[in-house]
Automatic annotation (TrEMBL), chain A:
Residues 468-678 form the MacB-like periplasmic core domain. InterPro entries: ABC3_permease_C (IPR003838), MacB_PCD (IPR025857), Membrane_comp_ABC_pdt (IPR038766). Residues 242-363, 713-829 form the ABC3 transporter permease C-terminal domain. It comes from Halomonas campaniensis. This is Putative ABC transport system permease protein. One of its GO terms (cellular component) is plasma membrane. Keywords: Cell membrane, Membrane, Transmembrane, Transmembrane helix. The chain crosses the membrane at residues 239-262, 282-309, 338-362, 383-404, 416-445, 466-490, 711-730, 760-792, 804-824. Its main location: membrane.
From TrEMBL, chain B:
The keyword Iron does not apply. The lineage of its organism: Bacteria, Pseudomonadati, Pseudomonadota, Gammaproteobacteria, Oceanospirillales. This is Putative secreted hydrolase. GO terms for molecular function: hydrolase activity. It comes from the Bacteria. Gene3D superfamilies: AttH-like domain. Residues 88-277 form the AttH domain. Keywords: Hydrolase. It comes from Halomonas campaniensis.
Length: 841, 408
């Protein structure tokens, strides 16, 4: 048996290229897959830790007037029997410049079943509390923050690392469950470190412990504070889908390489059978070979996947941080099942790809010696099967589409991905039959041009082996096109929308208690053409009513107040209105509401509906009923929002003052106003933001969001190119045998070379052309189905001809590159070798 | 096991009193130590601490703290307030009440204080800086119902002692002991009077239907009783002990809210005050403590430390109090405590039927808890509930009281 195995494996010694190709396919597929999984696992771990922390599980109380709460407020409330706990939050700079969040807690009043339990320490000795509460106190910190603090994990416990301003932290105590870059300590220690005196950031209470906010305070229920896990789920789903795509493309390479390796070993297999190796043993040996190769490829893949993830993670972390405020450690933290999962997925994929090979090997006839190219004979049957399977996939896609069409908008994220996958699969399966039919048709047309006819016929002969590579190319191209168009479309829409939203030249955020004074002063300043005051608050959307039928919702929403003025109204985009823009704006100014697209989509709301809202203010029970007169797009906002005119929001929901947008009079200078404000109100230059600065920050965030998508997209295309290259290289030697007769008939080698380039370039072009409509269909699926389900907003479908041309060019270039090497070899081969009878392998 | 009748001598003032009676003290030490460990350590919520591990924490060194010593006269009203230089202290009230329908009702309210560091190491006052921890327990029981709540707070010994900024504290004159809105406060306005004589106790927890608690008026109908040697209650052969006095003569009136119903109640209450610095030894597994109001006007305080006596046996002690408030300290040999039957309470077996013999007082009692489910499911759990005392031979009902059991 070992002899038989070494005989089988000796094939790769003679054809190291095939081994390289096989391993490459496995390696690339598993590397991309495991890197994305590693990123997801790491990010999820970070969310779990963040959610386990205080901010998400507890109701929050802040002062209505925006001032700081103090220790006195806390004591007074406790003495009045209100179960609140103080929390102090601030930022400190580590010695290396990293911003660290410092959270000061009072463990004695923090709700006991809050997730503080998970902020735990490694030791829980009885002296724990005394150590936490008494000087020099303790700093609870996750091990992955140690690097930032410049402390080695071994010496962490008890060390007191220094901070930027020469201050030192209380002795460290490790708590793996804390989010990264977060320091938790007793509130006394935090107050000393942050020099915050008697001030606290907020009061917290167990969810639902307070029926209403005490006077002068605003209560934000825990449920309103969206959890990063939920928000980012769709982001991770996107990453996973891309990684799955990469895995599939990689497995195409593997499948191609395995088929080739088997075909070339058919003679050897028959010999082995003739020598007495049973069919079952042979299949077992081939399976063993697969496992050995699979293990090697998967291990290499996982190792490089982790490396890749480490390279991408800072970007992912930055994206998630800026988009959702979710803190993600820039250091990988992988659970054990990650490693097993990566291995299992790669091996499973390999066995799936190799199952056809094993099946054929099992049915191998010992006597079937004459038919060396047995595989190709069945190709027509295979084409029929592929067409049928493609039809099946298309039917599944249609069924999903029909189902999606009946779902309320905003649901069916998985079905959306299923639809896109079915579309891809159907197209990939139909590609070989379509190509075969096209070739047959073309050959018919080229009857009078023998060389062209030969080239077409020859291409048809190559098709069985090329088809897999072409399928991989089709999938990669169309996915690339789809994702590219979506990102590009989103970018255009988002930038437009930013322009429409940010109409004021300057944005001022005066202190809450001086808001009225500053607002009035701005009104009299000659350089100010218009003031656009905004306010924000929170509310619970209790019910929605349409044509008398009421629905209970109990949904936390944001309230946002804007000033409908001459500058804002024409610019603010509206998606649907009840009776036209004019009417919508007049109704809005009079007290009716707009809702954002996210809310409309998620709850199936439309203009004309009446909403009942309960403000989260001191008169928490006070209900307000509003009529929806329009829906507006609100890109990038993960939450549902109700828009009101600022004065209405202030009087109906007692919303605290927010910022003021300042539209400058023509010719007025921003710096003059800045100086005047600084002089009159001693407002720092920081409290006045330039519109361009706001746009720059927003665009920066956006660009980072799609860095990962773009990177993965490019990698997928690279894998497809590799697949094509590998398939062509694998059959280069055989090609020579087929070209030899033509050369012998007098066709010059240069012509033969061109012919080959034309063959492959043509096939790739055809595949690329098919990828264009498919790509557009995928774009549609992404913007109209998946995006709506994942984020709650629909994007206009943008098609970028430049990008399509680029995709086509890529396809042809990849094919030409792949063909160039064999052609070059043909060019350099002495004519003698073309005639030499090739020894069977 | 029983030492009944073995020593009938009157030990006199040098007798060692019931120093360490209170599980709740262990509640505090443990609650603060272990409870915080629970909070900080990420253990599962509701995990019961191992009693033995919990007790180990009480054996910690008292070095640097003020020590309770015999011969230190108690001074009133000063000693009603906090003694921050001592490590541990409590204000412990239990009451046996009846509502209008004659239905018995029991309640407990306790405020515990613990100093985190010795006075010499006390941190400089600053925002939130604390060296004193406070814990309060609230319990109401009626029939099978037993409701419990607990609260924690911090303070600094240098905080002003008047009713000022603190979340929790205790001041001697005018008397007030509080944590959040739970408070035991004087009803006496005259500044020169004894403000400890008439108190109001208010403590409620929960919202809506789940709200329970009480507002009670306490009126002292007898003098303060000093246990042991003029209020120094020795608890170990090496001289360690605590300062310990009681007010066992409260007449209690007021209202109790439980299960959405308000009950007008009357009855008798018992308040213990104790402070010390030395905690228990690790070998002590727990204790059983009784306070009884007998119908003839006598009061009896009796306890045993399991493992605290000579040769590892129980260490027993108590005080027999006349209707006029004259105390007679009971020596270990003058007291016998024998568990007769156990019941299941919160998955534990606790002795809920005892024989209590004090031959010197002519007492041979069977003390029984009518309801076994009086488990205090607080950060540090223990058993505390109402008991009925009957004559062992005749079975006649002689009085009511409270029983507290730890370490089961």
């Amino acid at each position: 048996m070992p002899t038989a195995l070494s005989t089988l494996l000796s094939h790769y010694r003679r054809h190291p290229g095939q081994l390289v190709m096989l391993l490459l396919g496995l390696w690339v597929a598993s590397a991309l897959w495991s890197s994305v999984q590693a990123i997801n696992a790491s990010a999820r771990d970070s969310y779990a830790r963040a959610e386990a922390l205080f901010t998400t599980g507890l109701d929050r109380l802040e002062r209505r007037d925006g001032q700081s709460l103090t220790r006195e407020d806390f004591t007074a409330l406790r003495r009045a029997g209100v179960p609140v706990s103080p929390m102090l939050e601030g930022e400190l700079e580590a010695a290396d410049g990293t911003r660290l969040t410092v959270i000061g807690i009072d463990p004695l009043t923090l709700p006991g079943d809050s997730a503080f339990a998970t902020a735990g320490s490694l030791s829980s000795s009885p002296g724990e509390l005394t150590g936490f509460l008494s000087p020099p106190w303790q700093t609870r910190v996750a091990p992955d923050t140690l690097a930032v603090l410049g402390v080695a994990p071994g010496d962490a416990a008890g060390s007191t690392p220094g901070l930027s301003a020469g201050r030192r932290l209380p002795p460290l105590s490790l708590s793996p469950s804390l989010p990264p870059d977060t320091l938790v300590m007793d509130i006394a220690a935090a107050a000393a470190l942050l020099e915050s005196g008697e001030r606290i950031s907020r009061l917290v209470a167990a969810p639902g412990a307070l029926a209403e906010a005490p006077d002068g305070l605003v209560l934000t229920p825990a449920t309103t504070l969206a959890s990063p896990g939920q928000l980012t789920e769709s982001f991770h789903l996107n990453l996973t889908a891309l990684a799955l795509l990469a895995l599939v493309v990689g497995l195409f390479i593997v499948q191609a390489a395995l088929g080739l390796a088997l075909e070339q070993r058919l003679g050897m297999l028959r010999t082995l059978r003739a020598l007495g190796v049973t069919g079952r043993a042979l299949v077992g040996l081939l399976a063993l070979e697969l496992v050995i190769l699979g293990l090697a490829g998967a291990l290499a893949g996982i190792a490089s996947g982790v490396w890749l993830a480490q390279a991408l993670l800072p970007d992912v972390a930055a994206t998630l941080g800026s988009l959702y405020g979710a803190g993600v450690g820039a250091e990988l933290r992988l659970p054990w099942h990650y490693w097993l999962g990566g291995l299992a997925v790669t091996l499973g994929g390999l066995l799936l790809a190799g199952s056809g090979v094993l099946w054929r090997a099992a049915r191998l006839s010992v006597l079937d010696l004459g038919q060396a190219q047995a595989w190709r004979a069945g190709f027509h049957r295979q084409l029929r099967l592929m067409a049928m399977a493609g039809g099946l996939a298309a039917l599944v896609g249609l069924a999903l589409w029909a189902w999606l069409a009946r779902l309320p908008p905003g649901e069916g994220l998985l079905a959306g991905f299923g639809l896109v996958a079915a579309l891809l699969l159907a197209s990939a399966l139909w590609l070989p039959p379509v190509l075969a039919a096209a070739l047959a048709g073309l050959a018919h047309l080229a009857r009078r041009r023998p060389l062209a006819q030969w080239a077409l016929a020859d291409l048809q002969l190559q098709l069985p082996r090329l088809s897999l590579a072409m399928m991989a190319l089709l999938i990669a191209l169309s996915a690339n096109l789809g994702v590219g168009s979506m990102v590009g479309g989103f970018r255009l829409t988002f930038l437009d929308w930013l322009d429409q939203r940010l109409v004021a030249d300057l944005y001022l955020r005066p202190p809450a208690e001086r808001f009225d004074e500053v607002h009035a002063w701005l009104g009299e300043h000659p350089g100010v053409a218009e003031r656009l005051a905004t306010r924000r608050s929170e509310a619970i959307l209790l019910a929605a009513e349409r044509e008398g039928a009421s629905r209970r919702l109990e949904l936390p929403v944001g309230l946002y107040g804007i000033t409908p003025g001459a500058t804002l109204m024409p610019a603010w985009p509206l998606r649907e209105t009840l009776a036209g823009r004019q009417a919508a704006w007049s109704a809005f100014a009079a007290g009716d509401a707009f809702i954002n697209e996210q809310l409309a989509t998620a709850e199936g709301l439309a203009p004309g509906d009446r909403l009942t809202l309960a403000g989260a203010g001191a008169r928490g029970g006070a209900r307000q009923t509003l009529t929806v007169v329009a829906v507006y797009p609100d890109y990038g906002n993960p939450r549902g929002e109700v828009l009101l005119a600022t004065p209405r929001l202030a009087e109906r929901f007692r919303a605290p003052p927010g910022s003021v947008g300042i539209v400058l009079a023509p010719g007025a200078d921003a710096d003059d106003l800045r100086n005047a404000l600084a002089e009159r109100f001693a407002l720092g230059r920081d409290s006045l933001l330039d519109q361009r600065e706001v746009k720059r920050v927003a665009t920066g965030i956006f660009e980072r969001t799609f860095t990962i998508t773009r990177a993965l997209n490019a990698l997928t295309l690279g894998v497809a190119a590799l697949a094509l290259l590998a398939s062509l290289l694998a059959q280069a030697r055989e090609r020579r045998r087929q070209l030899a007769p033509l050369w012998a008939l007098g066709v010059p080698r240069a012509r033969l070379g061109h012919l080959q380039l034309a063959q492959l370039g043509g096939a790739a072009l055809a595949t690329g052309l098919l990828a264009v409509p498919l790509g557009i269909a995928i774009t549609w699926g992404l913007v109209a189905v998946i995006n709506v389900a994942a984020f709650g907003w629909r994007l206009p479908l943008h098609v970028f001809p430049g990008e399509i041309a680029l995709t086509l060019a890529t396809a042809v270039a990849v094919a030409l590159l792949a063909a160039a090497l064999p052609v070059l070899r043909l060019w350099q081969a002495p004519p003698r070798t073309l005639l030499a009878e090739e020894t069977p392998s | 096991m029983s030492a009944r009748g073995a020593h009938k001598r009157w030990r006199g003032p040098a007798w060692r009193g019931p120093a360490w009676r209170n599980p709740a003290w262990r509640g505090l030490a443990l609650g603060l130590a272990l409870g915080l460990a629970l909070l900080l350590g990420g253990c599962e919520e509701g995990t019961a601490p191992e009693p033995s591990a919990g007790f180990a924490g009480l054996g910690e060194s008292a070095e640097g703290f003020a020590q309770a010593r015999p011969g230190t006269p108690l001074r009133f009203p000063e000693d009603h307030g906090a003694h921050p230089d001592h490590r541990i202290e409590w204000w412990y009230l239990t009451a046996n009440l009846e509502d209008q329908a004659g239905e018995p009702l029991g309640l407990q309210w306790t405020l515990f204080r613990q100093a985190l560091v010795p006075p010499a190491e006390r941190p400089a006052p600053g925002p939130w800086v604390a060296d004193q921890l406070w814990m309060a327990h609230l319990a109401v029981s009626r029939g099978e119902t037993h409701r419990v709540a607990e609260r924690f707070a911090r303070s600094h010994a240098a905080d002003p002692t008047h009713d000022g900024p603190g979340q929790a504290g205790a001041m001697a004159h005018p008397f007030r002991a509080w944590l959040d809105d739970w408070e035991l406060v004087t009803r006496v306005d005259a500044p020169d009077a004894d403000t400890f004589e008439r108190l109001t106790l208010t403590a409620f927890d929960g919202e809506g239907e789940a709200r329970f608690g009480y507002r009670l008026e306490l009126t002292a109908e007898g003098p303060l009783v000093l246990h042991g040697e003029a209020g120094f209650s020795q608890k170990a052969a090496d001289g360690q002990g605590s300062h310990y006095y009681s007010q066992p003569f409260w007449r209690v009136e007021g209202e109790v809210i439980l299960d959405g119903e308000t009950h007008a109640v009357t009855g008798r209450g018992w308040l213990d005050r104790e402070w010390s610095s030395q905690l228990l030894g690790a070998e002590q597994a727990g204790w059983d403590w009784f306070s009884l109001h007998l119908d003839d006007g006598h009061r009896l305080m009796a306890f045993q430390l399991r493992g605290g006596g000579e040769a590892g046996g129980e260490y027993r002690s108590g005080t027999w109090i006349s209707p006029e408030g004259e105390p007679r300290a009971l020596a270990p040999g003058e007291l016998a405590l024998t568990p007769l039957a156990t019941s299941g309470a919160a998955d534990r077996e606790v002795p809920t039927r005892w024989r209590l013999e004090v031959p010197a007082a002519g007492l041979d009692l069977v003390v029984e808890a009518p309801q076994a489910e009086r488990w205090m499911d607080t950060t540090v759990p223990y058993w505390e509930g109402e008991v009925v005392a009957r004559d062992h031979d005749s079975g006649d009902r002689l009085g009511v009281g409270y029983l507290e059991m730890t370490g089961y």
